[in-house]
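Our working data are protein records whose layout never changes between entries. An example says more than a description, so a record of this kind follows.
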Amino acid sequence: MAGIVTRVFGVLALVLAGAGTARAAIPGLPTQALCAAETAKAERLYGIPSQLLDAISLVESGRYDPESRAVLAWPWTVMAEGEGRYFPSKAEAVAEVKKLKARGVKNIDVGCMQVNLMYHGSAFSSLEEAFEPVTNVGYAARFLKGLYGSTSHWPTAASYYHSQTPHLAAVYRAKLMKVWNGGGSRDAIASLSPVGPQRPQLQPTVGPRPSLSQQVDQAREAWRENRASAQAEARRIADAYRQARMVEYQMRRARMVELRQALR
């Protein structure tokens, strides 16, 4: 079963990875603004409702930023063994993942969007690329868009980004909707001091946020333009996601059996 899932996610990575290699951090942007810059661009590029991807990044890798006095997504974040770790540099975050892997830890989430390396690691050419905001956020955006294709409902797709287990998805969705409805990180990012001589422009989607029904209608209309290939991609994503969760469940069951046998 594990071999099948590995092959499935290998194909999925090729479908979702997209062209190009990781780019360096955007000049002039403070580190705590990098995730917001990339989520704003990805929302426009993939037709994702304004600030939804940003809100997911805040839930996934957000931490309190003293300068803006707000929670902002941090690109050099590592989650493993139930513990979140925030590092001052990408090099330190990469080094931590290597240490975890050397200890046999496989279930590791990284970057702005906390992409899981056990299931999605093959989407990146290296650990360094997995942490780069442009590639980390880009992959997450394509994954979310595929989940929307199989659900036709953005809040449901966003909750499935975390888990398709009903109670876990429900808890995540409630938290995410509060963050999204609160406006995301746009105002906090605007208050940051620029690194260079000029304040960089994040160019978030301008104008009032449309209602949820308008967002769904607009995204659905855009999706219909390429419906056949999009639905096929969405099915592959959903099937791979379900299989990955099944493997995770089976691994937990196997560990429980081993523990019981050891205690006999």
Observations:
- Residues 1-24, 197-220 have pLDDT under 50 and may be disordered.
